[in-house]
Write a structure and sequence with these properties.
heterodimer, A: about 160 residues, alpha+beta, Alpha-Beta Plaits, 2 domains, three-stranded antiparallel beta sheet, two-stranded antiparallel sheet, B: about 375 residues, Cytochrome-c3 Hydrogenase, chain B, 14 helices, 8 strands, about 45% helix, globular
């Protein structure tokens, strides 16, 4: 008797489980009600504003950035993703030398997206962009220079 | 032609070895178990570690205390927030910094969200290990809601690095409370559905009940913690015994089962999800106002001494032991990861069963291999 009882119980639980899957399957097949997948290349994915895509340096319309070359981000970075090559810039009026960035190099391939550089930056020069299309055919393209060519320090940042 | 008669004494019996892993799909990573088999019965298990060893403890000795945190994401990536919190709490304990109530509540809520996400992933993958593929789809659908909450607030879905010594990195997103309430309502609806789909199923019960039994004594002897130990009847919840963050102001039960078999471990985790929802429900409307960061020096130097802080991750007790000699880098950091000790308990629990039972037992132990091998 218990043998048949077991068979009955097995069939019962089978249908119990299938009632759950059926509740999703039939509405989905008819109306696509519970569909949560996103057809990625055709449909753009939802990206939230705090998403950590890659580090970028903000430039205004006059091609000016806010980076003073203090190297706080380079020190804060745990795995050496940021390298700053700096130079002395001579003020033509006063003749005084001033430290400025030549190249702000960012190795995206080494970055672990820990946000420490952005927290460390005293002038809010670098920030996260939400770009996530990082795939390239050449590994060298993942090493980026963040300051645009010919850009210079914005007035009044250092005060 | 004489007839050849084979008697029982002519057949030679011998034990043989079988490698399970390092690329076995049921080990969820690169865990290699060297099995000694007698027929299909497992008579010996020996783990071979080192396939994903990264030397994080050594790397920590060259990093400052702020930089250690992002490495702890990479142990148990499913409970990365709790791992981060352990380091932060240890540093705050050493510096005797008291964080605001808001930070405590944010950390606790994030912990519980991470715990639910981790248990959901475990439920889905465990169903897949015993042959029910639907669970994987359902669990990942619901886990996506938590991932989105995380992404909105912390900017990352898995390795969040959200905690910093003296607070959290960003304030909560403005949708946080609404999303968490949505999540609680949704989870309360789908968790009974999970039970109907899998828990009561006869095939599943036969794979779970009485298989992979870990006695209370063995669980203590092998240093098991977390749901594995609680399923064997040991009260070991760090949230209860040494409350950190805001756990002393919420009411929740420590789920304890006594059977110690696969089904008990399954039930403990399923019940823990309900408990986590309870904690979230108590806190979601009571997030106090205040700062989300306490001002701390940019370069943190701990005083000389030894500091230990343990937290309850989704897999058990995660401990951080820092030896400081007063410099900006720690002299030595040791991490007590739950997976490593639970693996030792598996070596006991998996003995005597069939190979297929070992797969089921392993999935109820819920291993994350980078946690074992760090």
């Amino acid at each position: 008797m218990s043998y048949f009882k077991k068979i009955f119980k097995a069939i019962h639980t089978l249908f119990q489980g299938m009632s759950v899957t059926g509740n999703y399957f039939f509405p989905n097949a008819l109306t696509r009600k519970h569909v949560i997948t996103c057809q990625y290349p055709e449909e753009p994915p939802v990206i939230f504003e705090r998403f950590k895509g890659e580090v970028v340096m903000w430039h205004n319309e006059n091609n000016e950035h806010r980076c003073t070359g203090c190297q706080a981000c380079e020190i804060a970075c745990p795995n050496g993703s940021i390298e700053i090559i700096w130079k002395w810039e001579i003020n033509p009026e006063t003749g005084r030398k001033k430290k400025a960035i030549d190249q702000h190099i960012y190795h995206l391939s080494m970055c672990t997206m820990c946000s420490l550089c952005i927290q460390a930056c005293p002038t809010n020069a670098i920030m996260w962009s939400t770009n996530f299309h990082h795939a390239t055919y050449d590994r060298g393209l993942l090493t980026k220079v963040l300051n645009k060519p010919g850009s210079k320090l914005m007035e009044g940042v250092e005060e | 032609m004489s007839e050849q008669v084979i008697t029982h004494s002519d057949i030679k019996f011998q034990e043989y070895f079988l490698n399970m892993g390092p690329q076995h799909p049921a080990t969820h990573g690169v865990l290699r178990l060297i099995l000694t088999l007698d027929g299909e019965e497992v008579v010996g298990i020996e783990p071979d570690l080192g396939y994903i060893h990264r030397g994080i403890e050594k790397m920590c000795e060259y990093d400052t205390y702020r930089q250690i945190i992002h490495l702890t994401d990479r142990f148990d990536y499913l409970s990365s927030h709790m791992n981060n919190e352990a380091v932060c709490l240890a540093v705050e304990k050493a510096l005797e910094v008291e964080v605001t109530d808001r930070i405590k509540v944010i950390r606790t809520m994030m912990d519980e969200l991470t715990r639910i996400a981790s248990h959901l992933l475990w439920w889905g993958v465990m169903g897949m290990d015993v042959g029910a593929l639907t669970t994987f789809m359902y669990a990942f659908r619901d886990r996506e809601m938590i991932n989105e909450i995380m992404e909105k607030t912390t900017g990352a879905r898995l390795t969040m690095s959200y905690n910093i010594p003296g607070g959290v990195m960003f304030d909560l997103h403005k949708d946080f409370q609404k999303d968490v309430k949505n999540l609680i309502a949704h989870m309360r609806k789908v968790l009974p559905e999970y039970d109907r789909l899998l828990t009561g199923n006869v095939i599943f019960q036969r794979r779970m009940k009485g298989i992979g039994t870990l006695s209370k004594e063995d669980a203590v002897n092998y240093g098991a913690t977390g749901p594995v130990a609680r399923a064997s009847g040991i009260s070991c919840d760090t949230r209860k015994h040494e409350p950190y963050s805001a756990y002393n102001r919420v009411k929740f039960n420590e789920v304890i089962e006594t059977a110690g078999d696969n089904l008990a471990r399954y039930q403990v985790r399923m019940q823990e999800m309900y408990e986590s929802l309870d904690i979230l429900e108590q806190l979601v409307d009571n997030i106090p106002e205040g700062d989300y960061q306490v001002a701390m020096r940019n370069l943190i130097k701990l005083p000389k001494g030894e500091f230990y802080q343990s937290v309850e991750t989704a897999r058990g007790e995660f401990g951080v032991f820092i030896v400081s000699d007063g410099k900006k880098n720690p002299y030595r950091v040791h991490f007590r990861s739950p997976g490593f000790n639970n693996l030792n308990a598996l070596l006991k629990a998996g003995l005597g069963g069939k190979i297929a039972d070992l797969v089921a037992t392993m999935s109820t132990f819920d291993f994350v291999i980078p946690d074992i091998d760090r």
